[in-house]
Structure formats: structure tokens, C-alpha cells
Design goal:
The protein is of the alpha+beta class. The chain contains four helices and twelve strands, in the order βαββαβββαββαββββ. The chain has helices at residues 24-34, 58-68, 100-109, 134-155; strands spanning 21-23, 38-41, 48-50, 71-75, 79-84, 89-94, 118-121, 127-132, 168-173, 176-181, 184-186, 198-201.
């Protein structure tokens, strides 16, 4: 899959970060604060940074930390999610009635796809395998649920077919009346009545 995830726009100037001894989650939060990025650090991210980090562009600085401390990160367009590598998930998801190509296109259009993480057809009928950090897998799962719900809504009738309305007329002639149902007389044509009118009745009316 080509990478079309939400773009994490970071400056190209080196990110200078000098620390002698600091908690890793705190350093990651400070990284986000300094670059005005919302950061969500998993409780499973642990460790301490000791010694001076080299001056690197912010993206390379982030990648270096994830490599040194066995982390994964994923940006969903609003929040940078950082998790421990052991939190990565693999999930089999049912695709039916959505095709893999349509699903893949939806991930690209929503900027969810990321070439670092896996979304591919799995053995079996209408299954995909999604693997990656929790936030990525959750978005993949939400996308397929939304597409399936949309497909089911399109297939369901908007409303049950309504029965055709029955045409019922009551014809008054002088002191007698005649019921015409769908243009044909019904019952006794001589029902006493004192007013001469012509009117239509709804279903169930007599």
C-alpha cells in the first residue's frame, strides 16, 4: 500500500533537545508542546532518556526515539499517538459485502493508510488482516463498519410497499344510496337516505 496517511507537518530545522536524565513519556509530551502538536502517550511507554540527544530534524528525532525505545507512532490528523511496540494489534476483519479495492480506496481517501502498517487480504472469503498500533487498527475497524452500514442501508427498502388505496364512493339518489367500490356497486342499492350528495370514503369507512 502506498502511504497516504494524514501528513505530520514538522519543521525541517534541527530539533535541539538537551537532557541529562528525563522520563521518556515526559520528553515525548514536551516534544509535542514545543512543536504545537497534540500527543497521546500510552501508559505502556516507559523508560528514561539519559545523555544529550543529537540535533536532528523533528521527524528524525521522533523516529530515533521510537527506534531506541521500541515504540510505534501514528498520526490521525489531530493527535500523534505513541505506543509501545508490544501493544501492536493484528485483527481479522470481515469485508463482506465491501470489496477490498473499495475498502482500500476509502482508507486512502480518509488519510488512514500508512505504508508502515499492514492492511491486506487474508486467506478466507471476504477477510482482511490489519496490523499496527492500536489507533491505526481502530480506525481501520471503524472504516469497515461504516462502509458495511452504508451498504446495508442502500440495500434496505426505504419503506414497506404501501397497498393501493381502494376507491370507495357512496352515491345518494333522493332517498336511496348505493356504495360503489372500485367502480362496482356493493350490497343493497336501496338504503334509505334523505340527502343527495356524492362523496368518497377512506378505507374502513362505510
Amino acid at each position: 500500500m502506498r502511504s497516504s496517511a494524514a501528513s505530520l507537518s514538522l519543521p525541517s530545522a534541527p530539533y535541539s533537545y538537551t537532557v541529562l536524565d528525563q522520563d521518556l513519556p515526559a520528553a515525548l509530551q514536551e516534544f509535542g508542546n514545543n512543536l504545537n502538536i497534540r500527543v497521546n502517550v500510552s501508559a505502556e511507554v516507559r523508560g528514561r532518556i539519559r545523555g544529550r540527544m543529537p540535533d536532528l530534524p523533528p521527524r528524525e528525532f521522533l523516529d530515533r526515539l521510537t527506534s531506541l525505545y521500541n515504540l510505534q507512532w501514528y498520526y490521525d490528523g489531530l493527535v500523534l499517538y505513541i505506543s509501545a511496540a508490544h501493544e501492536a494489534q493484528s485483527r481479522l476483519i470481515v469485508l463482506n459485502p465491501i470489496s477490498f479495492d473499495a475498502f482500500n480506496s476509502a482508507l486512502d481517501a480518509l488519510n488512514i493508510s500508512d505504508e508502515r502498517y499492514i492492511v491486506k487480504p487474508a486467506p478466507g472469503e471476504g477477510l482482511i488482516l490489519a496490523s499496527g498500533p492500536p489507533r491505526f487498527v481502530a480506525l481501520v475497524d471503524q472504516t469497515i463498519k461504516g462502509l458495511v452500514a452504508e451498504a446495508q442501508a442502500r440495500r434496505s427498502p426505504v419503506a414497506a410497499e404501501r397497498p393501493q388505496r381502494e376507491s370507495v364512493l357512496m352515491l345518494f339518489r333522493g332517498s336511496s344510496s348505493t356504495v360503489l367500490r372500485d367502480g362496482r356497486p356493493e350490497g343493497s342499492p336501496e338504503t334509505p337516505h334523505h340527502e343527495g350528495i356524492l362523496r368518497e370514503t377512506g378505507p374502513g369507512q362505510k
